[in-house]
Design a protein that fits this description.
This protein has helices at about 10-35, 45-60, 65-70, 70-90, 100-110, 120-130, 135-140, 155, 160-165, 170-175. It contains 10 helices and no strands. It is mainly alpha-helical. Pfam families: G-alpha. This is GL15059. Keywords: GTP-binding, Lipoprotein, Magnesium, Metal-binding, Myristate, Nucleotide-binding, Palmitate, Transducer.
Length: about 180
């Protein structure tokens, strides 16, 4: 009693068990070397930017596909930023330097929703350029500390010609500025 001949099935089970043990050990070693970081801070304090910069510096950065996925976000943030600046003009009692820009602003607000769909139509870009070049809009932008505006607003609005290109793919810098 108690003596038995091991079968091929038993040997396979032992080998499987050893493989599982090796995999668990390797996973444990990998997990032990992994650093976890908890970032706390108020809104717009740079938490996401730090994570993105760490990915660029300490990993391989963003792939072409990942950058392409940010196109819609870049378009949306650019349009939303200009909308915020123009809305702030009313609260800050700032007029357009050229009163003809009031109608352009109305047209812009009417057509702006296309950017949320990942499309930056040439008509919208033209309206945005006209508005962004207005002295009143620039004055409102200069006073952005008096209202909440994305830090990336100036970066994107100053890059309208580049990001409006049909073949535009956000760069690593664009992805970091997106927040």
């Amino acid at each position: 009693m108690g003596c038995a001949v091991s079968t091929a099935r038993d040997k396979e089970a032992i080998e499987r068990s050893k493989n599982i043990d090796r995999a668990l050990r390797a996973e444990g070693e990998r997990a032990a070397s992994e650093v976890k970081l908890l970032l706390l801070g108020a809104g717009e304090s740079g938490k996401s930017t730090i994570v993105k910069q760490m990915k660029i510096i300490h990993e391989t950065g963003y792939s072409q596909e990942e950058c392409e996925e940010y196109r819609r976000v870049v378009y949306s943030n650019t349009v939303q930023s200009l909308m915020v600046i123009i809305r702030a003009m009313g609260r800050l009692k700032i007029e357009f330097a050229d009163q003809g820009k009031t109608d352009i602003a109305r047209q812009f607000f009417t057509h702006a929703s296309a950017a949320d769909e990942g499309i930056l139509l040439p008509e919208i870009v033209l309206l945005m350029k006209k508005l962004w070049s207005d002295g009143g809009v620039q004055q409102s932008f200069a006073r952005s500390r008096e209202y909440q505006l994305n830090d990336s607003a100036g970066y994107y609005l100053n890059s309208l010609d580049r990001i409006a290109q049909p073949n535009y793919i956000p760069t690593q810098q664009d992805v970091c500025a997106r927040v």
